[in-house]
Amino acid sequence: MLNSIIIRITDSDEPVILFFKMFMLIPGISCCNISILNPVTFVKLTFTHNNLGNYRQKFGECKAMVLIGPSVMCADWGNLGSEIEMLDRGGVDFYHFDIMDGQFVPNFTMGPDLLKTLRAYTEKPFDIHMMVEEPERYIDMFADAGANWISVHAESKTHLQRALQQIRSRGLKAGVALNPSTPLSFLEYVFDVTDYVCLMTVNPGFARQSFIPSMHKKISDLKDMVTAIGAPIEIQVDGNISYESIPKVVEQGASLLVCGTSSLFMSNNLQQAASDLKIFVNNGFKQPG
Question: What is the 3-state secondary structure (H, E, C) of the chain?
């Protein structure tokens, strides 16, 4: 029987190579090969095995790794370099930059020069959330500035599929961002060029808003859609991602957590705050200490 397993890679391909070698030692596995599913994150193992059910019962189902990304908008802009160094030491996984143009949302924030400056302080991925009109005009600009992932809003004035292709053509992860009231049907014909979906769990533009309760169902519904089509698409959640909300959004399928004033930026000791949050996420949602 032909089967497949999708594996996520992060900083290097060594874990995948090791897993591949160990996987081939399982009795009954044959015809195993690796194929790349997208430019950055996933590979797919295709293999034959006549009793995969017993294998899964013995070894358990693989769960997606949950990654933590500080929202740079919530940091102390007078000390961004030192704060990123502290967050790096605390073990965060990526940095989330909210790019606002004052039109798509009623606020202005960061530009490419800021990315270029901060790129020297960390090797972690830069996740660029474009809350702008006509984002396709700026994709190359932010790619050149050091972006690793770029998400564009389905509601912005853009040819969405073309914009996602443009992002991928630069070797970056391509994401679609959806406002709380935007239906998931917007994603139906772009899943094949999408690496992650950023679900806004507050209305975009400002920090310190309350989590919108109906977004719990939206996360679950998106997870069901992604599972049904077998796509290696990750779910990012952005907006009041707190110690209280994290267990439920992770249970519902989120694997990329954008964390701001509700969970990370509550202490002057950002290294400890990041470390505590990582422990919480990776230790069954138990508070450290």
Answer: CEEEEEEECCCCCHHHHHHHHHHCCCCCCEEEEEEECCCCCEEEEEEECCCHHHHHHHHCCCCCCCEEEEEHHHCCHHHHHHHHHHHHHHCCCCEEEEEEECCCCCCECCCHHHHHHHHHHCCCCEEEEEECCCHHHCHHHHHHHCCCEEEEECCCCCCHHHHHHHHHHCCCEEEEEECCCCCHHHHCCCHHHCCEEEEECCCCCCCCCCCCCCHHHHHHHHHHHHHHHCCCCEEEEECCCCCCCHHHHHHCCCCEEEECCCCCCCCCCHHHHHHHHHHHHHCCCCCCC
